[in-house]
AAA+ ATPase domain-containing protein
Amino acid sequence: MFPQRGRPNKGGLMKRIGGGGGTTSRPSSSHSRSGNDNNDDDELPEALRGLDKELIEKIQNEIVDSGESITFHDIAGLADAKQTVLELVCWPMKRPDLFTGLRRGPNGLLLFGPPGTGKTLIGKAIAHESGATFFSISSSSLTSKWIGEGEKLVRTLFAVAAYREPAVVFIDEIDSLLTQRKADENEASRRIKTEFLVQLDGTGTSGRGRVLVIGATNRPHELDDAARRRFVKRLYIPLPEAPDREILLRTLLEKNSNVVNNREMKKLSVDTEGFSGADLKALCTDAALGPIRQLGARALDVAPGDVPPISYRHFRQALRGMNPSVAQADLDVYLEWNKTYGSKSLVGDGDDMGTEDDDDDEEDESDEER
């Protein structure tokens, strides 16, 4: 059955479609169908009639269950980014009656920064906090070797998302889909890009439902200018600071036997300067293997309860074989792009309202005195 949320049951919406939905072989129009497949269009909701049923099924397979309980509290650090997203995105999606006109939330959000910093988790948390259906789509899922299939898939994606609203469409590595236009760009790629931008514009019009498109990228500087402008909010997701790294390390270790004390944990958080969340996970994984290496050949016969706990020494050994995955030169590129195009956080500015006006008044008084 075609899943739906927040809408009354309209009867037999859609039977589970059989047959291949892949992109490597295109079914012939004369391909035989069994049962009532010839009348499947009648079982589609009105908003989806006329769309390719196999493409609808492909989109269904990309849906991540909105019941997955990932909240902003599950994401260590990034306080400003999380609060900004909550105010600009989640609240408008939960209270569309309140956020109308100029208060209407953005229909496009770009999360950019080094890899392994939690961009995907933020997308899932947005869907959970706003009670939205979460679509996780890779750029490769929106491409097809068949001319025109990619554009149809893009249209189907946005139609299904609007039907399932409120919806969050998360597209990872969006730079590969919306890369800068080049003279030698093939026509199929250009058409998919144009169709995506048209559909993204359409999400901001009335009658299209509450659909938020979140693009995540590690290469924001490669985005097409037109695409960048359509993502009105562009948030930099940085590497974790020392306090956040300590929280991440504690979280990763909490279900594993260890004897790392508070002083050693703080030392590790300092010694992992420049590590991403993914780097920290890799570090913990390597440190967790330390007790096994310590046992040597005896590890094949030891009972799980007799394996030594993870210690600070194991982390020191793991650190000797690791370096941050993000180079300083790459960080400089992110910081420069954020300075030029990033959306500045307004978290906490509410308490300072009027400060600029007060400064202006003081300047006016000084002018009058002169």
